Structures are given as C-alpha cells and as structure tokens.
Predict the 3D structure of the following.
Amino acid sequence: MLGKGGKRKFDEHEDGLEGKVVSPTDGPSKVSYTLQRQTIFNISLMKLYNHRPLTEPSLQKTVLINNMLRRIQEELKQEGSLRPMFVAASQPADPLSDNFREAQPAFSHLASPPLLPADFVSTMPLESCLTPASLLEDDTFCTSPAVQHDGPTKPPPPALQPVKDSFSSALDEIEELCPAPTSAEAVAAESAADDSKAQPSESNIHKPEGLPESRTAEPKLMDPLPGNFEITASTGFLTDLTLDDILFADIDTSMYDFDPCTSATGAASKMAPVSADELLKTLAPYSSQPVTPNQPFKMDLTELDHIMEVLVGS
Amino acid sequence: FLGAGGGNDIQWCFSQVKGAVDDDVAEADIISTVEFNHSGELLATGDKGGRVVIFQQEQENKTQSHSRGEYNVYSTFQSHEPEFDYLKSLEIEEKINKIRWLPQKNAAQFLLSTNDKTIKLWKISERDKRPEGYNLKEEDGRYRDPTTVTTLRVPVFRPMDLMVEASPRRIFANAHTYHINSISINSDYETYLSADDLRINLWHLEITDRSFNIVDIKPANMEELTEVITAAEFHPNSCSTFVYSSSKGTIRLCDMRASALCDRHSKLFEEPEDPSNRSFFSEIISSISDVKFSHSGRYMMTRDYLSVKIWDLNMENRPVETYQVHEYLRSKLCSLYENDCIFDKFECCWNGSDRQVEFLSLCTSDLSKLIVMTGSYNNFFRMFDRNTKRDITLEASRENNKPRTVLKPRKVCASGKRKKDEISVDSLDFNKKILHTAWHPKENIIAVATTNNLYIFQDKMN
C-alpha cells in the first residue's frame, strides 16, 4: 500500500457499483443493488480469509467485516432466497488446536489473588470489588476453524454449516470445553468443502451433498465464521505447521526408508549417518556407489520439488 | 479563515519538516503517534519501528520576533522491541500506538508509551554536569596508582555537553489480551487507563504488577461479538469519569464511583442514523476512531470516517455540531472498503488555549475550544472554526512550502467541472494519509504527521 505513493485511479468497471446506493425496492436498479451486495460479500470473504498476517489481524476490522457479512445474509434470508449462500467456514479436523489449547495453562501464573495496596488512591473507594486484570488472562486463545488450503494461490472454498439452534448451542457448549470443531461438523464441512472445491470463485449456490441428516431440508443461510474472532494465530500457525509437517515428515521418512541402503551402510538404527550419506548421494550424480535406492531418491526429488513449489507459491 | 484576512483568522505558515526526504518509505519510519507535552516545549513522535523521538523548542530569540522557536531533536530512544508470542505463533508489533505526557513535577520529564500489549513509563532527564577531580581515578576513568597520590581534593561538578537520557522506569505488561488502542492519564496524576478492543484497565503509575479491570465487553460467546472499543479517555477534571467509544458509533460515559466494573454506562451518546445516507457501509463509517475531551470537559469531540462531531456532555441523543471532513468520499466507499482505506483511523484534536480563546471564553462563559483539526488523504488536513463555522483544507507537502509563506487553501472537486487549482477526487493519493495531528497547548503551532514526515506549521506573526 505504501509504495511510491503514486496517485490512485479508480477502476472504470467499479463505477457501476459506486455512486448512489440504490434501494432494493427500485425495479430496474435491483439488479445493480444485488450486484453491489454480491460484490461486497465476496470482498468481505476475501478479506477475512486471504489475509495471512505475521501479526494478529485487527479485531475491530474482523468484527466489522463479520457484521457486514451477517447483515447481507440477514437480508438474503429476509428476501426468502431459496439458494443458500456459501460461507467460508470450513473446519477441518484440527488436532493441532488441541495442542494449542493445552498450552494455555501456562498463563495460570498470572492469576494471582488480588492484593489491594493500602495506599491505593482515594478515588477508588470500591477497590475491593475491582477485578485485577490478571484474572482475565484465562481467555480462550484462538482455535478458530482453520481454512482449508488447496494451495497458496487459491482462495479457500466455503463450506456449509447448519443453522439449527439446538445444534449451534450444542456446538457452543462443545466449543467451551474444547474449541476444536466437532468431528461431525468437520466431516460435514470437509465434504462440503470437497464439493465446492470445484468452483472456488463462483459466488454461490450449491446444495452440498453428504451433509448429515440433522440439517433441515429447506436450505437455510449459514451462520458465517463462528469463532473466527480468535482466528489470529490458528490460520497462520496451522498453515505453517502443516507445511513444516510435510517438509520434515517427508524428508525424514524418506531418509529412513532406505532398506537397500541399510544393508550397505550397516544397521538400520543408524539414522544420522544415513541421512548425511544419502544427501551426498542425492547431490552427487556421479556417485561411485551403487545407487540402488534410485527410485526413492527420484520420488524424494519430485516431492521436494512439489514442496518447494508450495513454499515459493506461498 | 480562507485567507480573507479577518482579524481573528489564523494564517498558517510552513515552519519545519522532519524526516526522510525520499519517496521510498521505510516501514519502521512510519509515524504512528504525535503528542505535545503540557507546556508545548516538547513534541514527541512514535513510529512503527518502536522508536520515540522527542523534539524540543528553542528558547524564543528575542531579536527574531517574527518566528517562534524551532523544534530540534532532543532525545531518541527505542521504546519497544518486537516480540514473539509463542503460543499464538505471531509477532507482537513494536509500533508505538500512543504517547501521553505526564505533567512535569521536577527537572525530569515523564511519558507513557504503549504498543499493542505493553505500556512503559519513560523518564527523560538531562545531564549537563559531571563530577571531576576524583582522587583515585583519572579523568578518563583509569585508576590511579594510590602510591602517587600525595594530596587530596574534593571532586566538583563541572559543566559538560548536554546529554539527554531516557530510561524506562515502569513496565506495565501482561494485562491486555487484545490490542491496546488508548492510554489516558487521570486528572489525579496518579492513575491512568489503558483500553484494548474489549477491555479497559486502570493502573496506578507506581504499581506494575497489577491493574484493575473497569470495563469488559467481551461476550461469553465470542461468536456474539459485534462491537469493540475503539478509544477511551479520562475526563480532564473529574477523576472518576471517563468515556469510551465503539465501532458502532456510540460513546459511553462511565463513572467509577457507580460500580467497580463500569459495564453499565452512565450516559450513552449516539446519533440516530440518517436514513437518506444509508448504505452497506453505514456501520463501518460510523466507527469512531478517536475521542477527545475539550479543555473544559464540557464537550467532547469524536472522529468517524467521514466527519468530526462535537458532543455536549449534557445531550446524549445527538451531537451539537457535525463537520464533514471529506464528504466526497461517500460515493467511493466500496472502493475504499476494498483497498482497506475505510478502516483508516484518523485522529482529531482541539486547539490549545490562546489569548483569543480565553477572552472569548470569558465573554461567553463557554470554556470550549473553538477550532478543531483532523487529517484526510492526499496529505490534506482540515480545520473547522466552531465560531465562524468556516473550514479550511491545507496540504502538508515539501513542494509548495517556504518558511513564513502562508499556506494556500486546497479544494477538492467532488464532481463536475474541475476549476483551476482544484483536485478531483479520483486524483487523490490514498497512500498519503494524515492520521495524526497535534496542537501546541498554548500557541498556534501545529504538528502534522504524514506517512514518515513531521510537519510543523505556525501562524503568521505580524
């Protein structure tokens, strides 16, 4: 945003969306109103999910964008649209968030009993009732649903979620205990995500298959983005870990899988020397040693290439 | 006010500009806060790199009666460092969000500076003397051989080159889960508040290991969160009163005497929405980015995306005055939403008290300030005269400014034919935003921060 400070011009095609906001009741302008609404909806989704900050995104911004999405959804609901809108809230099963949650007790040291200084200012006669800020540090940290990434460049596909009250409240209870999404929901979300993967850029309208029967027959609009206010780290955190897992997992296992090699280099338990040697073998095309593990090497290279592509792409 | 030469109109002249000249802006140099101290002698800026730079005004040169003292660098120090939150695997920015000066009590100066998570109390002190004439040490610090000491002398203080030292005296940490947006020192000068998106805490300046929560708007279920705290400030005279603004355009006034947890406001200030201006972006542009009490405490000013509003504390249902900062942007809100400009947080400020204002106040027994200032895009900033209801747009730019030349008023052409010297809305540079401005507490000197430069303007003294 802060490059050379060149003057900005507004795109021509956006002119149709700017100008006076048309009310939804105008006849011929209803199309442009709907178009504007749709555009804003898409922009809002992209803002929430394409943002991969190193620092926490602004809670205020997240809240405002969320409110925007909710308002549009309410409008659509009231208009009685039969076509459910996809909302990006895919919730893949998230074992990492459990670990995340477990780390929280580290903050218990902050929950010290409120000792009130005797010489506290006289402007605070009710000091004995005040809550020390330290006691508030048992906030649930973010374990919001992480976005399922196809790859670094594609926007994540939206997924469907039920709006049944009982289900939501049950969800809430479960989230209170364990913020990771329930498996049923995750499965449903994943299947929905799979369905909609094919059209990531299309704005809407698929009745997802594979949803559990608990969903009502009449398509309803989803509650978008539950718990995404704490989105902050999970998204970035989990993404990084996922890549790391791929990275290290693959390299490690490939290095350790040298059955033919172990016979040459000795017992299979010698992991470290094997790695170094095999790395040299990988790098030295003219290795004098019989490159019996050629096949694994080749697989490693292509996998490494793929991983590098993913990394560079991100 | 538009340079018409009225008796009381201020004519602003360029005085100084601080910062790098080239267009390539280093991220760390982006100015994030500007604040005069209580006397106006010191001017502090904070930047995205966590540094604080303090400028000091020269003593007025009696021979140069046509200009006030210039501001020169007095002290520079690294207030905050970037941190890493290992639990969330995220960086904690070192950017200085706010600086607030304490009133001066002795030779040293004190200020509070805060980033997203930690507030620090800094002491800035001068050293202009040093002891000389030790018996056992040479002047360069080497120890003398005791056997060579034949006489004794008493060390004395001798003048040295002025050295300004900044040292952190208190660190107030671990009290905010969310990002701190405001700090405000109480009129008792012993306590202060810090506000993040969902909570406001009360501190004592001497005590760092505990603070008390006085506002908490975090819902039990975060999914229900629809509103956050955007700014907070203590009343200038009443030490139990403070206000906080929200992302929905409301301001709540709270009295700490009413209850320990001030979740229930004493007053709620909110203007009903104008149905003719309704759009998808109504809520976002109503979000208040800054709130400032007037000097008397009878009024407060709020800044939302398109306007500045003056509220009388005795009237909750609507502001007493509303000033449009850049109404021509109303038709561009969709684009501004897309490029995130709609989330820019503009600040606003009152003018300091000067003789004119005090005289008028005495006549009308109205102790409010009379001119308010706020920033806009394209390095424009705006001033609104509450008395004459006139406004002016000025530009902070190196190009058109020579010292003691009166600034030329600028005008933006919203639509239709663009007159000469006008700028069309589509030509505005939205990367050049003035978010932070400050007014000297006593004189007509203003500090205006562009992205990485600090401009100082003065009124033309005749």
